[in-house]
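Chapter summary example.
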Amino acid sequence: MKSLWNETEAREFSAQGELGLRVYTSRLLGREPALVLHGGGNTSVKAKEKNFFGEEEEVIHVKGSGWDLATIEAAGFAPVRMSVLLKLAELPKLSDDDMVVQMRAGMLNPAAPTPSVEAILHAALPFKYVDHTHADAVIALVNNAKGRERVEQVFGKRVLVVPYIMPGFVLAKAVHEMIQGVDFSQLDGMILMNHGAFTWGNDAKESYERMIALVTKAEEAVAKELPANWLATAEAKEDLVGLATLRKAVSKVRGVPVLARLDASPEAAGFSLLPNVASCATRGPLTPDHSIRTKVVPVIAGEDLAASVNAYVADYAAYFQRNAGAGHTMLQQAPAWAVWPGHGVVAFGATQAETGIVSDIAAHTLRVIQQGEALGGWQALPEKDVFEVEYWSLEQAKLKGGPARKPLQGKVAIVSGSAAGIGLACAKVLAEHGACVVGLDLNPEILEVLQGPNTMGMVVNLTDHDATLKAVEATVRKFGGLDIVVSNAGIFTAGQYLDQLDDSNWAKSMAVNLTSHQQLMKAVIPYLKQGIDGTVIFIGSRNVAAPGAGAASYSVAKAGLTQLCRVAALELAPFGVRANICHPDAVFDTKLWTPEALQRSAERYGITVEEYKKRNLMKCEIKSRDVGEMIATMAGPAFSKTTGAQIPVDGGNDRVI
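The structure predicted for these 657 residues follows.
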């Protein structure tokens, strides 16, 4: 492992003092996934600071609970009086609740985040800077049948070895007692069995580079003993309908839609095909604190995917009963990840961020497990110890306090014809309601206008069935399934009376306004059947009920689209999939309606442009977003028992009524 220390960068951070350098080296640690993952690890710096009254006090700035080392700011460190923490370390016992209360009471800034559960341990170590990581190589050494022996072989007497003790006060107390009289000049760091490593120093660089050196030594020792073929690889088989089926089963247990991220890399596929994968993958997490993200073990997906998930739920309930005490309430029982033999590894999460965290942890887990097996046998903690951390209130607190759940969170949507106008509005509103949205359009602008955390665009000619199918498959491959389809692609081909109608005009309207929708349905239906409350919503037109002269090709295609919707409602209802159609009218905030076109149309009626925009019974202007809001509503629970319906968004049209 290479040191990432850069003198130029360090000087920039040092302008902010000792805490600035603490931020810098914390980010260096967080930048390396082989050291810490998503909130793991913690760091601290001791300093003298003035309190509100101008009195100088010795304070430790320790990473705040819930902050990530990779992106931490100065505000992410909790300033706690050293005198308070050292007094706490002397107590014979201390409850978790009291520990948190007293640490917060000892903070110079009560608005700062809650100090890490390791704060007392950081305070007990007599160095200005202290670093703690869960390095993969160290875990591979210690989570092993011969873990203690291997640590001693690699590091000799240069590390203090601490047997596994649950993090928090008990661990801090034990270490505080162990280090009494220790000659730290003879130590490079501290190894916590089944947990990780600590290093220290009197300046930021010393502590950081000690960690790099310690982990490098572990990496070299592991690499030296690994056989050439220790990491299994294979070519994954693709089964996208199966992926959607697995996602649906997990969503059903969890009670909310989840995303599913498939890792079909050669490493993930190889791991999934290990002869003993059902054993080695289910012995426990790399470190107990991973359990709050990944649960204790993954589900091993068999041929009957739903049955495998149900069996996991039963096993989890039994695990809870074996370990729970009187004050425990069982957490949700759905698996957070799956090993899918022959296909790879699947991570589940209510958001892309959550899914990504689980996926990253799983990717590291499968490598470290194989290293541990090659080093003499992968060995996790006993389940009782893992249970204590999974159900530890201080760990569960890390997952609380997030934003409220959005109505379509965890759902996956496709919107066709979404580079502009109604389609773009639909895509944006669905995303605002929490859905992950993929927009399809022939216009390359789709790539830019739908570039966002939960939106993406694909350039697709929707009259090309193969291209459409590939786009749908790419969507399922990325998010794990499909729940909402807004079939909106269309062009306006009015302007020719029947006796003057070009064959090309008619053919183009039918191809885009009707046939492309039928082709999209053919591509999406296998996945909608495995969706969560699957729904397809067509965008029709007022012209269906009230066609206009000179608009035959457009009006007939939209009428056919309405009939397609009705047939879809009949065919898909047995699978719990809804099909409805929305008929907008007079939506003028689109590229089709230029100011000049609006002016010409208004003049034909002898009215102003503003009057023309509100030429409906309610005298209101209909905008693209109004249609988008209706589509989001139709995709949500309000329409969960409605199918085959035709919904106008037109302010009331006298010809239709």
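To summarize the output: The chain has 25 helices and 18 strands.
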